[in-house]
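Cross-posted from the bioinformatics board.
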Amino acid sequence: MNRRYSWFNITSLTLGFAFLYIPMIILVIYSFNASKLVTVWAGFSTRWYGELFQNEAFLDAAWVTLKVGLASSTLATVLGTMAAYVMVRSGRFMGRTLFSGMIYAPLVMPEVITGLSLLLLFISIGLDRGVLTIILAHTTFSMCYVSVVVSSRLASFDQSLEEAALDLGCTPFDAFRSVTLPIITPAVLSGWLLAFTLSLDDLVIASFTSGPSATTLPIKIFSAVRLGVSPEINALSTILISIVTFGVISASLISKRAIARQRREEQEALQV
Amino acid sequence: MDLRKLFLILVPYSWLLALFLIPFAIVLKIALSDYAIAIPPYVPTLDGIGNWSDFKTFLSELDFENFIFLTEDELYWRAYLSSAKIAFLSTLMTLLVGFPLAYAMARAASEWRPTLMMLAILPFWTSFLIRVYAWKSILSQEGYLNQVLLWVGVIDSPLMILNTNTAVYIGIVYTYLPFMVLPVYAALEKLDDTLLEAAEDLGCSRFQAFWLVTVPLSKPGIIAGCFLVFIPALGEFVIPSVLGGSDTLMIGKVLWEEFFSNRDWPVASAVAVILLLLLILPIVLFQRNEQKQREAEK
């Protein structure tokens, strides 16, 4: 195969990734700036990190965000996996079209509409807005992402494996647990991770569905950002960027190793 | 149908009905209600669903007052139009930036491609809000961009970029770039190089081969990428409110302000209903493109 290293390709890669990464790199560098003025460099300092960890409001918001993220992504993973199973395995049933429509619609729905509609629902049933309502809202849109991820894995694996387990005397639940689940686990895990990230990241839906008792980190960041640039937000952003970078790089290393192991095992099996 | 299967269907189904479909019915209902100074701030047009006489009064009193209001007030028309314009132009710009990047990624040596993929995906996992915020200190009057341009001597006085539509375009292109790069890359990666060689053997120049072979074969990826940028950009709220100025009109921002500042729920709901109607066409086209691609792969 002829892969040319032309100047054009090298320039596009350099410019493209520079565009993607320079803003974030600048943000990280200036979080260590000693000056309160974000655009003027005044020497290295970790002062803003110290102030960040003394800021009760940010710590509270971080705790709320973490609780909402863990609860909603776990719920969304369970519901999304069930929905994926229904979509791929249940064949025809009444209201299937509506069901698949409801799975795909939230993926393309503008956040302002999802947020508004859920808020109006919570008000009309008289549910106080707080942590619970944000969890319900986040679960609803992220279960759709989970179900898309899991159903593509479910659709691509050999169903005869499941049938074999059933023929060998497994109950349907046993067959699911010992055959299907191990195969779809990577997809379920990445679905969970996606749901968790979406929840941590969401500003619009959380703003609509939260009450005064619960403020998430994005809501806190947004109200600070609207006022202008602040070094504390830079410090907070740097922490979040490092967590994500660490997570993505380790996930890709793990999956690389898993693929390599699988290949090796397949080769060994062929040699035997 | 056995009980277990019924349970499996019923749980996610009823969740989505309760928290996705019913909320929409409520939005529609409130969009048809009248504004009132009360809590909640609207006069219900339909209560007691299932009651036939109530339903008849509802039908007779049904009014599209809020929708008529939207057509009469110039603000909303301009907001829809300017959202469509901003979303359309920024989609084109994202394609112009994203295509060369995806092309170069697909042409890179195969041992490099997973790393490049990871580099393209990483920003997608990073907080959207933070990525938008990062531009604030770059584009402001005393920001880094102006500092560099002044230092190089391209300009004499700082440019006003932050709080204008230009900043909104930059923000959209920046944050949605991964959505364009990934589908285009997926289409280009599958491209068979021998087709290009054949085209060149048959007398095409390299540019002709690119235009006649590469571009048509990557069309599904380009279309998917464009919709993935256009659809969310149309209802965008965060970017215009962080980077845009007071004259930046986008419908997501109007809806937000109508709801949180003016507390006019019926009008906010009517704005949402029309936004949704506007999105139906692109969403249907997008789904059709995806379906065609799936069938082509079979």
